[in-house]
């Protein structure tokens, strides 16, 4: 399995998709840094400016998260199916390598690279906000917890893609990945809107509509829980040691609705099941 991990790691570095995603990331961070330089031109310590700064940070992390997801799809959608379609799977399996080692080795190798890439994106966005004078007080516990959840989302997404690539063709895997991520994203937005409606308590009809939207968000998070992980990340990052939390002020980029501990138990078994099912189906697949 170690051989597969090393092979996958090196293979990913050579892919044009990785180079493309890296260039897009540099472009994004440059534009984001330019925007921050203009936003922070006028220093202020008012609570309204600090809330606005937290919104800018959340928006930056939101789009950084999308770029990481873009990288996950481009680099892993053909992880197993591509080897089968190109015929290289025969030379790989002719060596003393079992099929489950191939699937798990691909997953671990891609996970290492994605975690490194994701961590750089997260620390860059947070670091740029600190560099340009953000008044949000970040403790090391805020940053480390936020980093953990920012990295966790792409790993869960990767598990779905690896399992799909072990069963379906590259095209079908890409469709499944993009559709699942889109559904999770839309569901997360609907859940935030539903929570905002419930908190406003405008009317009994509004409360009922809010509950329906929240339920829709919960259902979509069961299909792919990447969005709820992102909401948890914003909560951990923007909850200050003093107890002050900015997560309720972020709108669609924030975390007005937070996942429970049961959701993270579900996420653990979700990843384990996907990898197990992917290995099982690949082991039975007629090559």
Structure description:
The mean pLDDT is 84. This protein is 79% helix and 0% strand. The chain has one domain. By secondary structure, the chain is an all-alpha fold. It is globular, with a radius of gyration of 20 Å.
The gist of it:
It contains 11 helices and no strands.
Tell me the number of strands: 0
Distance between the termini: 20 Å
Please count the helical segments. 11
Q: Approximately what portion of the residues adopt beta-strand conformation?
A: under 5%
The low-confidence runs, each spanning 5 or more residues with pLDDT under 50, are none
Question: Which terms would index this structure?
Answer:
mainly alpha, 287 residues
List the helices and strands and how they pair.
Blueprint: H1 2-14, H2 16-39, H3 47-76, H4 81-86, H5 88-93, H6 99-131, H7 140-167, H8 170-200, H9 204-223, H10 226-238, H11 261-284
